[in-house]
Amino acid sequence: MTEVHLRTAEPSDLLALLALEETCFSPADGKLTKRAFKYHLQHPRNQLVIAYNDQQLVLGYVLVLVKKDAWRLYSLAVHANYRKQGIAKLLLMHIIKNASEKHVNYLTLEVRESNQTAIALYQSLGFRCKTRLPDYYIDASGLRMQLSLKP
């Protein structure tokens, strides 16, 4: 297994993030654009964290929109060649730890209703389904999930 490291994304990561986005998502998923990534890279409040290996290859990322007491997991991607190695879980655990340390009440996310692999991962970390979202995606329904971090 590849050794994985985490760090806050930097502007120099833009091309790697765009390439990853292109391989992980279809247009129906609402891919992040170059403009969107640039915004999030420059927005000090949001968290854009990358997972990378010893060769500095970007393996995955997580983007969280930060509000005072509720954070929204906006996007999570792991390169297909590196899936099933715990990278998504590592990224999520990092965000959950950060949120807990900042006394955030809860994390929310939306996921395709058909994405059982992602749903199982989220549930294993304590997320619970809150609402079904009919036609949330261009071609599918979604689920809103939430993780309560209140003591």
From TrEMBL:
Protein family according to the UniProt entry: Belongs to the acetyltransferase family. RimI subfamily.
Gene3D superfamilies in the record: 3.40.630.30
Domain N-acetyltransferase positions: 4-150
EC category: transferase
Domain of life: Bacteria
Reactions catalysed, as given in the entry: N-terminal L-alanyl-[ribosomal protein bS18] + acetyl-CoA = N-terminal N(alpha)-acetyl-L-alanyl-[ribosomal protein bS18] + CoA + H(+)
Protein name listed in UniProt: [Ribosomal protein bS18]-alanine N-acetyltransferase
Known EC number: 2.3.1.266
Gene Ontology terms for molecular function: protein-N-terminal-alanine acetyltransferase activity
Keywords linked to the UniProt accession: Acyltransferase, Cytoplasm, Transferase
GO CC terms in record: cytoplasm
Compartments, record wording: Cytoplasm
Function, as annotated: Acetylates the N-terminal alanine of ribosomal protein bS18.
UniProt keyword annotation of rRNA-binding present: no
